[in-house]
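Troubleshooting entry. The earlier prediction with 3-acetylpyridine adenine dinucleotide gave an output that would not parse, so I re-checked the input for stray whitespace and re-submitted. Clean input:
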Amino acid sequence: MSAVQQIDAIIVGAGFSGMYQLLSLRDKLGLSAKVLEAADGVGGTWYWNRYPGARCDSESHSYMFYFSKELVHEWEWSERYPQQPEILRYLNYVADKFKLRPDIALNTRMSNAQYDEATSRWLVSTDTGERYSAKYLITAVGCLSSANLPKIEGLKDFTGQWYHTGLWPHAGVDFTGKRVAVIGTGSTGIQAIPVIAAQAAHLTVFQRTPNYSLPARHAPLTPEFKQYAKAHADDIYKIMTTNTNGHPFAIVDRSALAVSSEEREAIFEEQWKMGGFQFRAAFNDILSSQEANDTAADFICNKIREIVKDPATAELLSDIDHPFAAKRPPIDADYFETYNRDNVSLVSIRQTPIERITASGIKTSEREYAFDIIVFATGFDAMTGSLVKMDINGRDKRNLKDYWQAGPRTYLGLQVPGFPNMFTITGPGSPSVLCNMLPAIEQHVDWITDCIRHMQQKGLDRVETTEQASQTWQQEVDRAANATLLPKVKHSWYLGANIPGKPQVFMPYAGGLAHYREICNNAVAQGYKGFEFNH
Ligand code: N01
């Protein structure tokens, strides 16, 4: 057994959040820190999600670190929405520029973490046999990193190839001449389907819940825009950090119901042409008023019916049962247009459920389909999946998975009662997935770094949030969600409803990133209200 290595902090995960946390602790506070990363490269979510068509839905000039002016000015994105390989290149560039690699242990999974009350330290072991004693344990595991492979009977009998989009092979998959099935029409499926359709002999899409999607209008960035984004970096950052969603545009302060139907239609039309999430930001009540939301939903459903030539297919795609943007709306490149191709067909598994996977394909209640390749675009055990998979045991041997049996309990999504000196970057109860992730990550890492600086300066051994603070925060998380239409979707991963048996609790904080930042800052200003420190 290897000797226990003494270190200030263990960080789990080498994506955006883990790398910025490492840099902050090491370079700003002068602490020793080690990142444990299961993959053989940095990148986190963007290391694993290599499926065809994978791109970010935040615009490239906002999907980057802003903590370093030099980095902002050095890096150049090529497209409006960056593709996965470019984002991975960026993350590798960051790792090299800030010399992070020596403090990142790749191919290393944290297998167990145990808090030791006597020393106020975390004892961490890895699957490579390393052991660490660390004052701080920081999870940077991402919100959408635990792939959800549904338990469909018969998968082991399938003689073709199958893949989950979140665990895509590095060598890629050649769909040429193949009969392909895609199960799932969330953001991932909607990105992958047009690209697979362009290659496959035939593509059959299995849709459970019809989904809204907005055109992304991908395009290379012009030299003028690149220059503008650099020259106005401070202004862009200010917009991102003072609005609800962390995007580089503000929500227009007008109700969808305060304008005439002609004017509203013209505004939606203009946004549709521009593409992206700005559509959702055209009015301020799309996510809070059902009536306002209906106007956006009707507009999109009419577009679907206009685009898709076969009326039966158009009907299956536009028969949407939830408010627009109450699930994270995908943005796409010719998604609905793809159903006009001769080699693409759509199966509603609401109408004809999948019964099983067979040796040669998929059998629904209606018939059997033959496939060479099945692609599961079936999402993630979101927000909590990766955290509870790790064997984390806090004070009094409190196990995280057991403690969260009825749903995650956190204060501000930053700390969990009973888990002293553990911080969860973009944990459940924080805005995270309801935002552009980058400003959410930077805000969390900066807050955690400041808290640790405070402890180091004051000679404090331990910080832990209280049960009371976590209960009060959960009430605020519920209140914020209930002020929106988000909880109206009963089959959303925001609620954990996509994972059989997972407790259904609305997990992200819907009060908006700017408001949340204020709450976090106020807690500090009030002497870290909701947190207790010990010498
Ligand atoms: O996952 P999802 P995703 N049988 O859970 C279906 C981010 N993201 O990977 O809706 C049959 O949204 C499921 O059906 P239903 C983004 O935040 C961002 O697509 O549960 N079908 C649904 O259609 C996004 O929201 C980007 O009824 C089953 C699909 O699979 C989040 O990741 C790109 C099933 C899963 O959709 C997750 O998106 C990609 C079953 N047993 C992802 N189980 C960008 O930045 C599930 N489904 C652009």
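This one parsed fine. The pocket of 3-acetylpyridine adenine dinucleotide is lined by residues 55-57, 144, 150, 183-189, 191, 208-209, 328, 349, 377-380, 433, 491, 493, 498 (CB under 6 Å).
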